[in-house]
Every structure is written in C-alpha cells, then in structure tokens.
Amino acid sequence: MGPMLIPNTRVCLQHFIPVLSRNILNGLHKYVPACFKLGGLSTFSTKDLNKHGVIKRKDFKSKDFVIKEKPAFPKSVFAAGTARRTAVLMKLKAGISDLEEPSDNSRKINYLEVPDRPLTASEWKRLKEDNERPDRFEIRMMGGIFKSSADINIAKSLLAYVAVDSGTVAYELLLRYLTLCVYGGHWAEMYDVYDIMKSRFRTLDTGAYSLLIKGFSKTERWEEALVLLENINKIITPSPRNYSDVIAGAVQHGNFATAWTQYNQLLEKDIIPNQDTWKYLFEAGIADHENDDKLLSILEHMRDNQIYPEVTLANIIRKWFECRPDQKWTGRISTVKPSGVCQSCRSLLESIQLTEEDYADLRDSVMKNVIEGKDVFKKTTPEELESFKHFVSKRPPFDVVIDGLNVAHSLGRVSQSQTLLAVVSELNQQGLSILVLGRKHMLFSTQSWNRHHMNQIQQKAHCFFTENISEDDPFLLYAALHSGNHCNFVSRDLMRDHKACLSSGRTRQLFFKWQRGHQLVLYNFVPGKKVRFRKIQSYDTIAQTSANTWHIPFDEEGTERSTYEVPQKWLCLTRLN
Amino acid sequence: MSMRFAKLSLLNELRQCCHSLPPRLVLKKRYLSPSANFASSLNHLQNPTRSLSTSWPKWKDVHQPKDEEKEKLDLDIWKSVMRSQVAEEETSRTSDDDTVQGEAREMSQDPPLEATREMVEMWRQAGKKVPEDITNEQLEIVADLTSKSAKKKYLKFLSIKEGYKKANKEKQEKKKMEWLAKKEEMSKEEGDDEEGSSKLKNTFILHYWQRSLDRLIGWQGAQAMRFGQPLVFDMSYEPQMTRREIENTINQLLETEGCNRRSVEPFHLHFCNLNPEGAYHKELLKRYSTEAWENLLITTSPQQHIDMFPREQLVYLTADSPNVLRTFDHNKVYIIGALVDRSNLPGVSLANAKRLKLTTARLPLDEHLHWECGTKNLSLDRIFRILMAVKETGSWMEALKFVPQRKHAGFYSAKKGSTDFKGAEGRDTIQANRELKNLFISKQRSKGRAEGKAPLQSPIINVLKSKGAARSDTQKARKNWWEE
C-alpha cells in the first residue's frame, strides 16, 4: 500500500497545491525513500506545508474531491472535456479561484428602470427629463422593457408618447418594439408593426427580416416567412438560423414538402445547417415517414463532416428510429470500451487506423500543404528539407518519432535533456526504433542541455537537428507519415496550426483521425519514475452504421467540448429481426 | 410646405389633448371642446390631409368613457401617426418627381450597388454603426465583401473614421473662428493706433522664410541621395496584405519619408521591388500628388535590393531573426520589410531573407526593455525613428525611446540608475562613442554627451532649424488633413 500511496500523494501535491513550487517537490522526490523509512510521507509533507504556512487548510480540503474524481487510467487528450478540466486545474495551480467571473456591470447600466404600468405622455416626459442621460432615452427604455419582460402595454404607451411628442417613430425604436413583440409572442402587434414598417420604409434591414421570419413562422401566416427569406436573399446570404426558423414553421404547420425544399436550398447555398434544423426535420420524420432516406442522408452528412449531435437531437433521432414503421429499432445510451466494443450491443466499432488509400492521401497533402506550403522558406529551407528526406530514406522505418523540444519542455524546471533521456530510454527498452527531432542549439552543451545526456540520447535513437530558425513540427509529421501506419509520435502539441494548413475538410478530418490514433502524450511524468502515456483510442469516434446497427456519438449536456475533442457518449441503435 | 404646416399644427393639437388627458372626469367634460378645436383649426387652414381620416377612429374610441378605452387611446395612437405619415410621404414623393427620376436613373445604372446602398441605409436607421456619407468606391468594397460580419466591420470602421474627421473639422473651424476674431481685434487695435504700419515689423532677427527652409531641406535630401546611408524598404509583400493593410503601410511610409526629410542627416530611402502597376504605387500616387511624387528625393525601383547593393552590405531587419543588432553599422544597408500584418504572419520577412540568403538581424528590444505588457510589434515609422536615432546618437537607450511607452514597462538599466550604463549595452556605448568622434553632426545632436564641445554650426541656425521643423510639422499635419 505504501509505495502506491506515495506517488499519488506526490501527484496531488504537485497539482493541487498552488504555492508549493516545483523545486520543493523535486527535492521531496529525492528524499522519498528516506522519509518513507522514517514513517510516512504525510508527516513530512505537512511539515513542509507548515513551514511555508501560506496554504489554507480550507483550500486544501475543498480541492480534495477533484482528486477522487480522477479516473484510474489516463484519458486521451482528445476526450471531451479534457481541455476544460486541464484549464480548471491550471487555474487552481496558479491560485486563481474559479468563482471570479468577469463582472459585466457595464451592460446593466445601459438599461433603465422600467415603470410598472403604462404611463401617459406627460408622465413619460417627466421621466425622460429626470433621467441624467435623456439622449436615446426611448431606445434604452425599450431595451429595458424587453430585458425585464415587462407588460407590452408599457411599451405601447412609450411608443404613443414618442409618436405624439416627435411626430414619428424612428425605425430603430420600431425595431426594438418588434423584437419585443416577436419574443413576447404578441403576434397581432407584430402584424401591425410589419404593415407599418412595410408601408413606411421601402426595404427593411436584415435584422428586421430575421425577426419577422422568426415571428411569422410561429403563426398562421408562416408562409409569409418564405417571402421574407427571399427578401433577405436579395441582400445577403441568409443565416442558418433563418432557414431553421422557416423550416420550423413549415414543419409545425404540417407542410413537410416545403421544409425539405428549404433544406435543399440551404444545402445548395453551402450553408452549414444548425442542429435545430435537423431537429425539426427528424420531428417531421416521426410524423411522416416518407422522407426516411433523406433523414438517413443527414446522418451520413454528420458522418462525412464529423458533426456530433447534441443530446436533444440525439434523443429525437432515437425516437425517430424507434417509431419507424417497417423496421423495429431500439436505442440505448451507451459508452464504448477502450477495446472498441460497444457496452450495449457488444459490436465492434470502426478502427481508428486509416485505410491505405486515405493514408497515402494524407501523406501527400501534408507534404504539399503543411511542409512546403506556399513558401518553403517560411518553415525551413529547401536544402534542409532535402537533407532530411535523404536522412529518412537512409534509415529503417521508425516506430516512434519524438518531438524533442516539446517533450523536454513538458516538465518545467527539471533539466530538459534529462526528461528527454528518460522518455527515450523508456521507449528504447521497449525495443522500438526511435527518431528524435530537435534543433541545433541542443547540441551546444549548456545547463539545460547536458552533453552527456545528449550523447546517450544519440546512442539510443536516431537524431536529426534542424536549424534554430526552422520549425520542427513539419519534420515530425513528415517522418511519422513516411514510416508507415504503425509509427506513433510523441508530442504535447495538438498540431492545430498544421491541421489548419490542410486545404480540404476531408484531409483535415483524416489528419485528425490519424492524430488521434498515433499521438502519444506524456502523462504526469515525474523524473525517475516509469514513463506513462495517455491512452490512444483504438476506435474511431464518428457516426457509423453496419447492417443492423447505428452508432452515433453525441455531446452530453454540461461538458464543454473543444473543437479538437471528441464526445465519449454514444447512441447505440440496433435493429431487431 | 403648407402640407407640412397642417401636419405640425395637427400634432400640436394632439399633443395638447394628450397632455390634458389624465384626469378622468375632466376628460369627459372636455371631450367636445378639443375636438371642436381640432375641427376648427383644420377648417381654418382649409387643407385637410389624410392623417385626419386615419386618426378618426381614435376619437371615436374616446366616446366610451371607460377606463380601458382611454388606455387604448393612449396605446395605439402611434400607429395612426405612422400611417398618416405614409400618406404624407406619398404625396410628397409625387411632388419631388424629378429627383425621384434621377434616383431611378442611378438605380438602373447599377442595381447591385443600389441594393447595397439601401442595405447600408437601413442598417444606419436600425442603429448600427454605419457612416452617414458613403462613396461609391466604398460601397463597391462593401458589396464585394462576402460575409455579413465583414460588411458590418468595414462599415463600423468607416463610421469611426467619419467621426474622427468630423470632430477634427469642427475643431479646425473653431480654431479658425478664434483666429479670425483675434485678427480682427488686432487689426482694430492697430487701426486705432496708426494706419498702414502693420506690414513692416521692426525686429533685429532676420526673417526666416519658409522657402529658405524648404530649400535647405531639399539640399539635405539631395545630399543624402548622393552621399547618405541607404535604407531600403522592401515593397514585395503586396500579395500578403489586404487592402486596408496596404493603406496602413503607405500611411506609415509617408510618415517615415516626412520624418526622414526633416532630419538633420537623412537616410537615402530606397523603395525596392516597387511594382509600377501595383497597389502600393497606386496608393502612393494617390496620397502624394503625381507631381510631389515625381519630385520626391527618394529612390524607387522595381529592382530587387540584392541587384542594387553588394550582398555582403545588406542586412535584413526582421523580428524573427535569431541575431540581435547590437551596434548600428554605418556602412551597412538595412532593409525593412514594408509589411503591416493585422493578422499575424510570423516568419514572412524571415522567409524572404532566407530565400535571398541575406544576413538578418532584429532590434535589441528584449535586451533593453521590460516587454511584458504590450504587443510586440512596431509600426514602420517607429522602426525608422529608432534607426534614425541610433544612427545619430549611437545609443540604443536613446533610440528605443521611440518605442511607444504603452507597450513596455521601462528600460532595464533605468531601474539600476543612469550611471550604471553597462550591462547589455556597455560595450556598445563605448563603441558608439568612438564612432561619434568621427561624426560631427551626430555629436551635435546627442545633447547629453557632446554638450561640452563647441558646436560647429552657430546655434541660431539650430534654433531656426528646429523652429522651421516644428512649423513644417504643423504644415504637414494640415496637408494631411486636406488630403484626407
């Protein structure tokens, strides 16, 4: 039990005590055996804490639960929510409490106190005169009425006052009033405002059109929303939300054909539909099963573009599957084992390994877009690239490529060469053929780059050092991709800048898939201990189908997923025969 | 016009009614009289408008003396007002027939632009940040932008610019008025004293004419073109930049050129890789007039810098360089990339230098400044000023004073005290001092150290020069304003 306990304690010290500097911890590490003999680390560490005396016991306790929450095995960096969790940890480490939210008082000031009943013109006038900032009083007041969702009659009385006082109502104020009507569901008023606006102004602005589309599609006059959409179309490209509103209107009034024509128009314009649109279409599908093929094509679309539905959409998809008349489907929420087996239906998911064809595609486009790019000189020089290609071709294919500088710097102040050496030795023990990439300055013996260590590294691995002003990541990608599908790489870098260099969406997805399957990330490395890496997933997180199943990964509620992360929950749909 | 009057009077009536409405009981009693007034006023004007008819229902409502009905009268009055305005507008539209026709002609000429104009106008009415006046050229740019947010951003930019321009204009106008008033006062006073003597002033200082200063500056420029140290601006980054970035670059280059022209010992400016058909050239011609551009004392060339100077003399200044420029070498030709990157483009100029296999260097910013707070980029004219200062004084401390203060947290050596000058710089200053002895003008400029030695030029010229420089500064500003 003892040895198990110690590293854990150390880990938690390192992570959850902001004040303890790394130096102390490292020092602590050296004395571990000694103090173990003396009877336990805990006394030692508390003493140490007391010496520093800055840490509040309360803080320490409150952070305790985080430790327990930690999974037994290190999760992949690409699992949803990891980035968020890391950010919180980092904040704790830096001593910033999570509760400190940026105060947005500045916005509140803009809104005025709203009267509780409709006022007469004279009362409004008095109110305006009393206000310290009478300019734009009406507009700010209208905003305030909207914000506080007060009675619409107050807004009406304000408009009446403005109309009588100035002889007209400005467009901006009308627009605010329209917002109020649309969000408050005052349809009759909305019609009136629309008529007035239409007759008073030759065209409306895009914001007004969007509001009206939203409003009209919820009423009996939903067909007018289509006309309005056409009007927007003349000025600018409509937003996905406009389409989603129109489609919602059509679906709610039972006109599924119109909904689908609008959806096709949206696709024609290369607009990315939002999830609400799909929600309405699937809801339509539940009521009417004529368009099942099209709905399946939406699922294909999700697969092709690596889109993950939100939990509400996932539920609707499940419902739609379950009420298909000709086939009997059942849906369950499930997770997937690390081996790639669905917990619910026991079927094996698609592997994360790329097919030969995809792999070749990816290799070529990385070479063309990432390494060479528009200007070879930006990241390297042609001579250097040529010599590297030569270097790679002369050596046997590598099993693992290490981004030397990235690995070396992953542990703050510890001698950088030492960290790198530890990782290289570990991989060397596993009998792998290793390539270490670095820059030439690593070879000049300095404090952080010990010559002795560097010599050892060079014995255990193939090494290539680029110019100090060249980037090393492109070389890493080149070497890893040219060694074949079995080759992994070690780096903490998420390579997002390189992914962005790729020209097409498809290659970007291929790159991401390859990255998820081949990137090794150091996990809580402590010098002198065994080097551990985070798990690499063996299955691909993407909507997928086989003869009798559909597996759709979806975003859970409450987890903040970064763009480079993939969800962990699955919707498992199986067909019963 | 009569129509408008009728409208106004009607509104006045309405306003009166509304103000007098609140007391419920009174309302009942009074109901007839305002209505009668109303009718009589209309009779009086004998010009009924359609607004009258639309507002009738409201008056009918008032017949019912119930609470809610009174409320309703209050609430929907704005609708009738707005509707009546539509009617009014229609009539006015028919009256201004020719202007409408003119507009229509314009519309038929360029319908897409007109649609954009309309959109911009509606955005303005909806309270978005949009300029009040917009030129056709700007509209074309708006129409070409693909996304809505890009359009909004550009329009916001224009509106902010317009705001500045307006404020500036107002200020100028105010100043002008003040000046005129002052002048008038002066002339009045003088007129009182003696007539006609205001033209000649009795002074012991020789009048220094603007013309003489211009000539002096011209000579200096010519001298620099003959003997001065070249400084190259590499104008080859046009494709990497957006239109706005190019405009910014030209702005900064103009500033640079002006600063160089007025300095004691100017650089010989070279604009290399300047494509005569490119956007840079077009913009330069637009900002300078063609005539001024032809007479400018700088060298422009479509050639590359490596074809104009021996390769070993060239040093490319780029922020990504691994080498630090510790001492300023008067025999080298420094190249500055004329590049403004609002979206960061790291390594672009370094790539260029690598391609041409040129020596690179960066300014010793990290060596001298605590640079934690601000963004680490400098405009072209700032870099020029730094180079100019280091050329004149030989001290980076002096030169880096031109780094905007908001960007850094002070000098390194300033903390230790001014006597302790060594550290990063010690060697450089000694060397620079040695160089100073060979350069009498530099000596004269570096006030602190060279003060003891007798200046070679008479101080009065210096005074005049600085005065002249200040004057030409203001003139330049004025010119800029007119140009804008």
Task: Write a structural description.
The complex is a heterodimer of chains A (577) and B (484). Chain A is α/β, with parallel strands linked by helices and 577 residues long. Chain A is 55% helix and 7% strand. In chain A, β3, α26 and β4 (462-466) form a beta-alpha-beta unit. In chain A, α14 runs parallel beside α16 (240-252), α21 packs across α29 (505-518) and α25 runs parallel beside α26 (451-460). The model of chain A is unreliable at 1-72 (pLDDT under 50). Chain B is mainly α. Chain B has a six-stranded parallel beta sheet. In chain B, α1 (2-19) runs antiparallel to α3, α8 crosses α9 (136-144) and α12 (243-262) packs across α13 (279-287). The model of chain B is unreliable at 20-72, 96-108, 415-468 and 476-484 (pLDDT under 50). Chain A binds chain B through residues 118, 120-122, 139, 153, 156-157, 159-165, 167-172, 175, 192, 196, 199-208, 234-237, 239, 375, 377-379, 381, 468-469, and chain B through 7-8, 11, 14-15, 18-19, 21-22, 71, 74-79, 81-83, 85-86, 89, 115, 118-119, 122-123, 125-128, 147-148, 151, 320-322, 347-348, 350-352, 354-355. Chain B: Its main location: mitochondrion. Chain B: Its EC number is 2.1.1.218, 2.1.1.221.
